């Protein structure tokens, strides 16, 4: 275990559990030991190490065997391909089914596996499908967009790298809600709306908070997915 000096002048909330000076009081009162005033309608800026790096170092020190689990997982490609084909197959006949079948398939299966594809794109953005093969990962990400019908893979890759490099830095890390969201969704009903629209906020926030110039790869992603959307619409219809 490192000495207290390693964490000198750092916020105890980011200390690994058990480290000297770590915050181990009531987890429901995380700011109990801080002495600055808090306001529920303002952000709190904490000038300390990004916690993932500190925790990673401590975990590897105590459990070096975890390194055996590091690396790419090619099976992800086959899962993405299988889900995509299953969704295309369902699209070929679901339009002739009753609304109850349509609703159940959409809610139980469609929503679940489409969410799986979005999560797969997270792993793909870290190039964790094919070891050392950027383009194979790149095209797997676009494949994962086919069933969701939205060309998001390349754009997500760009912004997600910023999230890791500048984690916790407002504006640069667009995973953090914007100041407008903080000041708009203040009541219980509004917060409920915000929670229900979280995927929409996650998708649109980067465009407004930290817009980036379009790249040819984003346009390529859009051309492939929108082109396939049109073909699927022609053969399967809208519903």
Would you mind describing this structure in some detail?
The chain is an all-alpha fold and 239 residues long. It is built from 9 helices and no strands. The radius of gyration is 22 Å and the shape is globular. Mean pLDDT is 82; it is low at 1-15.
Shape: globular
* Poorly predicted runs: 1-15
* Strand segment tally: 0
Helix residue percentage: 40-55%
Largest sheet: none
End-to-end separation in angstroms reads 58 Å
Beta-strand percent range: under 5%
The average pLDDT score comes to 82
Structural class: mainly alpha
Cα radius of gyration in angstroms? 22 Å
Which H/E pattern describes the elements?
A: HHHHHHHHH
Number of helices: 9
Task: Summarize the model shown.
The chain has 239 residues and is mainly α. Helix content is 55%, strand content 0%.
What characteristics describe this protein?
mainly alpha, 239 residues, 9 helices, disordered N terminus, 55% helix
List the helices and strands and how they pair.
Elements: H1 51-62, H2 75-93, H3 99-125, H4 134-145, H5 153-165, H6 179-184, H7 188-196, H8 198-209, H9 216-236
């Amino acid at each position: 275990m490192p000495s207290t000096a390693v964490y000198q002048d750092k916020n105890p909330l980011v200390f690994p559990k058990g480290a000297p000076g770590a915050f181990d009081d009531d987890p429901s009162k995380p700011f109990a030991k801080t002495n600055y005033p808090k306001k529920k309608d303002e952000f709190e800026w904490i000038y300390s190490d990004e916690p993932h790096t500190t925790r990673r170092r401590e975990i590897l020190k105590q459990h070096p065997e975890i390194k055996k689990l590091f690396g790419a997982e090619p099976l992800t490609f086959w899962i993405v391909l299988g889900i995509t084909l299953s969704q295309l197959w369902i699209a070929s006949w679901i339009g002739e089914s009753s609304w109850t079948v349509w609703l159940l398939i959409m809610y139980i299966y469609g929503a679940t596996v489409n969410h799986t594809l979005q999560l797969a794109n997270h792993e793909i953005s870290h190039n964790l499908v094919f070891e050392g093969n950027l383009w194979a990962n790149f095209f797997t990400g676009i494949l994962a967009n086919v069933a969701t019908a939205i060309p998001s893979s390349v754009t997500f890759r760009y912004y997600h790298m910023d999230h890791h490099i500048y984690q916790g830095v407002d504006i640069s890390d667009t995973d953090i809600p914007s100041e407008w969201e903080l000041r708009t969704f203040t009541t219980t009903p509004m917060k409920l709306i915000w929670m229900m629209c979280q995927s929409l906020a996650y998708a649109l926030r980067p465009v407004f908070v930290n817009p980036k110039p379009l790249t040819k790869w984003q346009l390529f992603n859009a051309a492939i997915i929108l082109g396939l959307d049109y073909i699927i619409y022609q053969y399967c219809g809208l519903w």
